[in-house]
UniProtKB/TrEMBL annotation:
Official protein name in the record: Predicted universal stress protein
InterPro entries named in the record: Rossmann-like_a/b/a_fold, Universal_stress_UspA, UspA
Domain (UspA) ranges: 4-134
Top-level taxon: Bacteria
Similarity remark: Belongs to the universal stress protein A family.
Length: 137
């Protein structure tokens, strides 16, 4: 049996880590290959220059988030992936590149105007070419 490819985007919040709990409830270790993903969103405005320190710090934070999640998935086949950019775009790109079977993520916590503009979760659900599971709080 070929393992299902599961993409789990994490933003470092406790809420996003619930995706891992759901993954463990839904799938046995032998059934899936997991890619844990974190996207560092570095905003550049007015030709602002980003220092190497900023990039290095963002990379370290991203690695820390993924390492925390990795500890919860002992025994699973897991890859880690860090990206820079807009989270939804990077998640969709990675899912397509890896030919992911499933994306598991948590629902948005945004309210008001941020919700109207559109959350990462909403954009992924609308544009993914694969099954997206949204874990509750």
């Amino acid at each position: 049996m070929e393992k299902k490819k599961v993409l789990v985007p994490l933003d470092g919040t406790d809420r996003s880590m619930h995706s891992i709990d759901w993954l463990k409830k839904l799938f046995e270790k032998e059934e899936i290959k997991v890619t844990l993903m974190n996207v560092a969103e570095i905003v550049i405005a007015n030709d602002m220059v980003i220092s190497n320190d900023t990039v290095t710090r963002a990379q370290k934070e991203s690695e820390d988030i993924l390492d925390t999640a990795l500890k919860k998935l002992e025994g699973y086949e897991v890859d880690k992936y860090c990206a820079f950019g807009y989270a939804a775009d990077e998640i969709l790109r990675k899912a397509k590149q890896e030919e992911s079977d499933i994306i598991i993520m948590t629902k948005s916590t945004k309210k008001g105007i941020a919700r109207m503009i559109g959350s990462v979760t909403t954009k992924v659900v609308k544009n993914a070419k694969t099954l997206v599971i949204i874990s509750p709080e």
